Amino acid sequence: MRQLLTVLFFGLSAVQVLAADLRILPSEVTLTGPGASQKLLIVEEEKGRVIAEKTAGVTLVSSNTKVAVIDKGTLQAVGNGNVIVTAKTSDGKTATAKVLVLKAEQNAPPSFRNDIIPILTRAGCNSGSCHGALAGKGGLKLSLRGYDPESDHFVLTRQALARRVDRSQPEKSLVLLKGARLMPHGGGQRLFADEADYNTLLTWIQSGALLNPVDAKLDRIEVLPRAALLSPQAKSSLIVRAFYSDGQIKDVTRWCHYGSSDDNVAKVTEEALVSGAGYGEASITVGFGSRVTTMVITSPFPNSVNPKVFADSPRSNFIDELVLQKLQSLNLPPSPNCKDAEFIRRAFLDATGILPQPQEVEKFISDKSVDKRAKLIAELLERPELIDYWSYKWSDLFLVSTRKLPQPAMWSFYRSLRQAVADNKPWDQLARDILLANGSTMQNGGGNFFVLHKDTSDVAETVAVSFLGMSVTCARCHNHPLEKWTQDQYWSFANLFSRVGLKNGERDGDVVVFERPTGDVLHPRRGVPMPAAPLDGLPLAAEEGRDRRIYFADWLTSPDNPYFAKALVNRVWRNFMGRGLVEAEDDLRETNPASNRELLDALARDFITHKFDVKVLIRTIMNSAAYQRSSQKLEENAQDDRYYSRYLVRRLPGEVILDALSQVTGSPTPFKEIYTGVEGGVAATSNYPPGTRALQLPDSRVASRFLDAFGRPDRLATCSCERQQDPTVGQALMMNNGQTLNDKLRAPDSRVSAWLKEKVTDEQAISRIFMLALSRPPSAKERERFQAIFANKTSSEPNAPGRREALEDLFWAVLTSREFLFNH
Prior knowledge:
Residues 548-788 form the DUF1553 domain. Residues 319-500 form the DUF1549 domain. It comes from Telmatocola sphagniphila. Residues 1-18 have low confidence and may be disordered. The chain contains 28 helices and 28 strands. The two termini are 49 Å apart. Among the domains are: 3-106 and 216-299, Sandwich (Immunoglobulin-like); 112-206, no CATH class; 426-556, no CATH class; 748-824, no CATH class. By secondary structure, it is α+β, with helices and mostly antiparallel strands. β5 and β6 form a beta hairpin.
């Protein structure tokens, strides 16, 4: 049934006219076993998204109460058969759900894995602050959140003189007495004697407290609804179902763990109750057993935006269509296009890390052709500075540094990456070159990846972050209730790299990488090696005997891989847009979904279609209207920091700032020292001739207090968190009173000295510094303000006393401004 109605979804303040269907969730139910139950949710749905919950005001009727009955919105099995549940609202709308009841007469004992462990987990018994702690609590040590059922079963049924689970007197079992606080318990009351969880535990003990090795395995979980509108201060419930290998489907809502990606938009309780808190989108994460899933809560901003705004917004490619769809769903109008002067500066800095020359700016602004931005982007993609910029970026990613590599090896690794950028080598081929490297690391620089990461776990974890954009480190020790990867999967993944061998080469600093015929890492809990397998991939058959790295590389670079393309696309997107579709850029967890999933999927597909061509990806992003928007906020999109309604202003990386200071002042930065192993110690180096830019440095150990202050990463760990972008007092002191800028201004070869010799006028100096540093002419008000600098220092005569000081003050004022230090 469809009708137009005015919806205030849970108190939604913005009136929307929507065509809605009444639905029962889930729409098809299978109840297996006596007393099986399923909570029902009655909703109004439009375009696959819930817009209103109607559960409280709906009448529910079972077509056959001998098969299933309904009590307080919960469906309960009575006997085998089929039944139709009908929901009816007060205004006459109806919806139905199909129900099948199986094995209603077959009493099966509770499963330790599938029933008891979830109860203990829900009660917090095996949490890190209770018996799941490393040393346990009160003499009882359970596996953290139940990741080791076999061990937990032994501890509960065999230790402590079998008093924790007493088969002869089940009601006297300590797990019941202490859990329900019928005897003293330091953890407080966790169970209630009159509730279902207590009775399930009791029934399990009465039936023998068995650990059934053939219990059905948990395949997946499903949360309903998958997407919903929710206004601030409103509330809504969730339903979670577990699907098992034997075909059973259970309502596990009460035993799940819940979390929100953004508590400022929506909060969720352990009772599966979601509360609106603000505007935007939030992902609600649901964890049960070793499975995780998510649903999305949307709360549109309370703006009144004419649909024509979105219809008339410029579209250059598929990016714009998907961005505008998201903006329209959130009532966020896009900012207009940026000015040409803003675009050329932005494009140069984002793509190449340098400022455009004034003549380049003037030529671009005066060009009247409609495709001049596309032509500029094409030119930038062929500039040598682009090679410098992206070589430096990939050197950050792969930790190129003499911290762990000798100088020759560091140079070999850097040159291999730089050549790959210069050749525009496809990303899948670059990945294969590194992961399949064999032989001398002097001849094959990519092999130094394995020299940097000698430990098998270190290799596995670094590969996951570098090429899959995700961390698996937690799974090394245990499963996590809100993360996807299990400990078993971790050690299967690690065994893909367990046979990489290293031996010394013939020259100093040279290492030979080779594949050993045998060797496995053991699962720390099971004490046996796990079958080598990619994450979510099929294990490599032991009898195949092929190089495990080749098997992994084939899986990794396959067009069907769900992670590889997205990881790189997200990194490049963040470089240009200021924020990753998934933030942080190397945190592509299932529990940290993209702000625009459809866009991330489309970018990944396009990247694969173009054979992993990074330049094509850059061109596509830069040509989009989304990238070319103004950074100026509109009143209606001022709160948006993740949906790309405007260009996000951000501080330039330290290396780009330092090179820009050199470019504007005309005084290159000397790099004459390198940090030694001694804290604060330096040694002289002649590897970097005069004129070397910061973005041309291959080694993060090159001494530079300026770069250190502005967050240069140490390249010790593959993590975006290594680069610090937050403002600090040290940065302010470095810019306002530090030696770096002052030395450049006072240098004999500086632009200040050249302008003094040239005898530039006040007007010329002001115009030139603005074009050099900000890529735009000064406004009338700025001209007037900066004229005051000269008036207070000296006369307008070029060689008057104090002239140099006035010019230095002019440079200092512009080069310490927010407009210079930020890209906008």
